[in-house]
Amino acid sequence: MESVPPSAGSQVSRVPAQRTPPEELAPPAVAPAPRQPRRRLRTALTVIAAVVAALCLTGGVVGYLVYDRATTPDRSTPAVVVDNYLRAYLVDRNDVRANLFACDGAAEFEMLRRLRNDLAAREERFSTTMWVSWESFAVNQVDDNAEVRVDLTFSAVVDGIRQSDRQSWVFTTRLNDDWRVCSAAVAS
What we know:
The protein is 40% helix and 26% strand. It contains 5 helices and 4 strands. A 4-stranded antiparallel sheet has the order 1-2-3-4. The longest helix has 35 residues, at 37-71.
């Protein structure tokens, strides 16, 4: 169907076109603003920072535990504590480290102290190095006390000749929170 214009005498043609004033018009539809890339970037940076912080915290905790385990002296059994004490006292000659394995208070190490002094004097007199080794741990444990028998071997090279001596020693140990060496004496 074709649309026919109104006739010249009709009222429709004489009525001026009615228009709504601009202030009464509905505001034009606003298209949603595009998502700002700043928010995505900020979110991504926040996630990355959180992951890095978690990794650093985890690494710090693991590092501390590894360091603590590596530096804590092993005093788990009577034989282990005697072994560590002998290494610190006779081989390394480190009294501070040896005290980590010794009983608190009055411990009886006078015979072992004399032995170490004698070894140092022999080294000086013969211009040699005295090596100390041990073997044959025999542990006799009764409740929180244990006696550890060990054979100490002292050896040196003097004038090109290897010399050695062997002595049996008895170490008494006691368990509190961990095992500690409380005395040392030549076995009778």
